[in-house]
Amino acid sequence: MISLPTAFARAVGQLADPAIVRVLVKSVALTLLVFAALGVGLWAALEQALESYTTGFSAEIAALVSILLAVIGGWLLFRIVAIAVIQFFADEIVMAVEKRHYPGAHAVARDLTFAESLRESLKGLGRALGANLLALPVALILLVTGIGTVLLFWLVNAWLLGRELQDIAWLRHRARPEDAPPLTGLTRFLLGGTVAALFAVPFLNLLAPVIGAAAATHLVHDRKESLPDAL
After folding, report:
1. Closest CA to 183 of 168, 198, 205, 197
2. Rounded to two decimals, what is the model's pTM?
3. What transmembrane ranges does the database entry give (predicted)?
4. How far apart are CA 99 and CA 94, in angstroms?
């Protein structure tokens, strides 16, 4: 069976593939555009909220709260936007990996329609927003620990990303919606955790969704070959 490091090594090795480069350019451009637009809206809402709720606090405290919330909000927002965007272009990444490494599987896979891609992207966006918003109050409390907030969001997003990345490759081959997922919970968590860690590294955070989608495709197909009836 293919190991997680091998799956990521193969994914990185295909980054120069013209098909992957096209998706990378489109996804990075759209991610930055959406992130910038949402960031402006978030900052405006934050400023208004602080004006309403920090009356009686010093300007220094209000500024500190503003900076902390902006950093946390931006950090979370980029990950959520990036994975939603890459889900929209996911089919192209999976097809590029399959054409090179799994031509037989590629020949029998079904293409997702525009409506399906959009629906899956919005569903993933909703799950990411919901999970991170639920974790936010605990994360704010854990700020005093220094590392607790980062660890909490890493755990939450490792779980989220593992599922989303698996589905990116699996949906093209799933026979029925109720079919059991091909990857174990531990494999999904390690996959998602690795990609979540890549999001913390400058420049690599732009490549992380594409690398994750390609690595997930290798893992799903390896599982399919090991257990032919799994998909």
Report:
1. 168
2. 0.78
3. 23-46, 61-90, 133-156, 189-216
4. 9
